[in-house]
Amino acid sequence: MKADTLLKIRDKVKKQYNARFHEVAKYPEWSANIIPVPKKDGKVRMCDDYRDLNKATPKVNFPLPHIDTLADNTVGHSLFSFIDGFSIYNQIKMCPEDMEKTTFVTLWGTFCYKVMPFGLKNGGATYQRVMVTLFHDMMHKEKEVYVDDMIAKSKTEEEHLANLSKLFQRLRKFQLKHNPAKCTFGVTSGKLLGFVVSRRGIKIDPYKIKAIQELPLPQT
């Protein structure tokens, strides 16, 4: 691993430790290596290799929503707000008896997570179950949820403000955090899981098919 990558990983580990995302693991029976994944902005995403742990983990059969159904449910609405979760898995606490299983090894120590890390087999299903539990009374009416993607939908401005107020109250109640840089409020159309949704209907996100559209024509 290159020196600059090591420094970025060290800073990430330190930041997470100071945020109390993990603690020192003393006598772990499980351990995972770190896999650095470069990001477009020059930063490094710190991924943990939980392949062995995932092989030994029973699968949680909590269903994810059908993407086409979510898109269809937005038809007929005039205003949308798209809300993106912030480090969503890290907002769920690990059971104390399972923390040791998430142990990862670094040059600066061996740590285990106090919150749910990325890379676990049942991470997506667990978060979806949490969101359904907390927002089931609002789903398929004024909002839709797909793991960390939330969309509030309304037919009028007054209705949209009321829906957002109710949503924010629920988020504050359960101390759920979202990324304002990736949120969009009160728009007439927007991207949702590979589609562009609006009052007029649904269409494919042009960015998703850009590579196909730009393929050169056959020469023979």
TrEMBL record:
Alphabetical list of CDD domains matching this protein: RT_LTR (cd01647)
Residues in coiled coil: none
PANTHER family: RNA-DIRECTED DNA POLYMERASE HOMOLOG, TRANSPOSON TY3-I GAG-POL POLYPROTEIN
Domain Reverse transcriptase: 37-196
Protein name per the record: Reverse transcriptase domain-containing protein
Organism: Hibiscus trionum (Flower of an hour)
